[in-house]
Amino acid sequence: MLQIVTKSEKETENLGRELAAKLGPQSIVALYGDLGAGKTAFVRGLARGLGIKKKVLSPTFTIVNELSENGKTLIHFDMYRLGSDELFDIGWEDYLQRDCIIAVEWSEIVDDIYTGEEIRVRIEKLGDNERRISFGGNIDADFSL
């Protein structure tokens, strides 16, 4: 498992940007971490890495945000207030068929939906600005950032 420590929100965002360059269509990034860990900052980096310049906000109240630009689409889910059943009710399986990248915050709540094809990103808050970011799941053995 690859682990990287970032020392600022910008470094966390840049790590997301680097990962985006390695993602193919229909990739799923399952994000795990406590409130304030940096999940949304990481997703903001994913968006920037895909060439999406639109503002990335946590979709806690809207549940899902779709960001499209330059022929790339990022679907950003927040499962904080939902469970697996509700995720299927809002069209999870339809999103999986699209040519897009899917990022899911609070994946621990819906962990049972995953098939093992997802990239798992665990973000742990070590201090005010420091984060330990661990990568697992469907990552090649030679994966590096």
How is this fold's topology laid out?
Blueprint (H helix, E strand, L loop, with lengths): L1 E5 L2 H12 L7 E5 L6 H11 L14 E6 L2 E7 L5 H6 L2 H5 L4 E5 L13 E7 L5 E7 L8
Parallel strand pairs: 2-5, 2-6, 4-5
Antiparallel strand pairs: 1-7, 3-4, 6-7
Helix pairs in contact: 1-2
Major sheet characteristics = 7 strands, mixed
Helix run count: 4
Lateral strand order in the biggest sheet: 1-7-6-2-5-4-3
Quantity of strands, as a count = 7
- The CATH superfamily is identified as P-loop containing nucleotide triphosphate hydrolases
- Secondary-structure element order, N to C: EHEHEEHHEEE
Average per-residue pLDDT, rounded, comes to 89
As a whole number of angstroms, the C-alpha radius of gyration is 14 Å
Class based on secondary structure composition and strand pairing? alpha/beta
Q: Please tell me the CATH architecture by its name.
A: 3-Layer(aba) Sandwich
List the keywords.
145 residues; alpha/beta; Rossmann fold; 4 helices; 7 strands
Detailed description of the structure:
It contains 4 helices and 7 strands; from the N terminus they run βαβαββααβββ. The chain is of the alpha/beta class and 145 residues long. Strands 1-7-6-2-5-4-3 form a 7-stranded mixed beta sheet. A hairpin with a 5-residue loop joins strand 6 and strand 7. It is globular, with a radius of gyration of 14 Å. The mean pLDDT is 89.
